[in-house]
Design a protein that fits this description.
It is a single chain. This protein is mostly helical. 72% of the residues lie in helices and 0% in strands. It has eight helices and no strands. It has helices at residues 2-15, 21-30, 37-50, 54-83, 114-130, 133-152, 158-182, 190-215. Helix 4 packs antiparallel against helix 7, helix 5 (114-130) runs antiparallel to helix 6 (133-152) and helix 5 (114-130) packs parallel to helix 7 (158-182). It is globular and about 55 Å long.
């Protein structure tokens, strides 16, 4: 176990940070939950357009909320304080070696990553719900990009990310199975699911444009 922990720390130092102020700014924007509000709204729009009854819409909203509750809230309120594994930025052993961006260090404990578990639970739930290949690939990549930002910023070890993805995937699958017990999922049109994909791409473009302006 000690060898695994040391390997985890060395791997983090290999992928953490860069000398680019432009990339620093991009990452800080992408890791901010507010950046993805348009994506969440676009998913809601697709759900409303596909499900004409408000009962169905509310059921999906409740399922998405349950994903966040089980994937992120349980982690932040129970697992992190219980395990009490230092974030890399707070780790007495390697904290001084971690490349910190704009003084951002996160909270004291980092096991496991709520960014990873939250985003992947949402990605998997909506992938199973809408079942359109382009959307599935886009949402999975979105979650992985969020995971990468946490490594770049040095606020999580790769092990934190891996466990977060595993837990988030289990939560997304479990919530979808529970959702199916209450209703039969609607069939989502491909043309509608392109909307969240476009919004996701535009959010990334926004992050890059913003970084170009800030770093110029």
């Amino acid at each position: 176990m000690e060898e695994i922990i040391q390997f985890d720390k060395q791997l983090l130092l290999l992928v953490n940070g860069s000398d680019s102020s432009f990339l620093d700014s991009v990452v800080m924007t992408l890791t901010n939950a507010k950046t993805w509000i348009p994506l969440y709204l676009s998913l809601l729009y697709v759900v409303i357009k596909t499900n004409r009854q408000w009962r169905e819409v509310l059921l999906i909203l409740a399922a998405a909320g349950l994903c966040v509750l089980l994937a992120g809230t349980v982690d932040d309120t129970i697992v992190k304080p219980l395990v009490a594994r230092w974030r890399p930025t707070h780790d007495p052993q390697i904290g001084s070696l971690v490349d910190v961006v704009d003084g951002y260090r996160g909270g004291s404990y980092g096991f496991f990553s709520a960014h990873a578990s939250n985003t992947f639970s949402i990605a998997l739930f909506f992938s199973l719900l809408m079942r359109q290949r382009v959307l599935v690939v886009s949402l999975v990549l979105w979650s992985l990009v969020n995971c990468w930002t946490r490594l770049y910023l040095g606020v999580h070890y790769p092990g934190d990310i891996t466990v977060g993805l595993l837990w988030g995937g289990f939560v997304g699958w479990l919530v979808y199975r529970l959702y199916c017990r209450f209703t039969i999922p609607s069939r989502y049109e491909r043309r509608l699911t392109y909307i969240p994909v476009c919004v996701l791409l535009l959010s990334v473009v926004f992050a890059m444009v913003r970084a170009a302006v800030v770093s110029s």
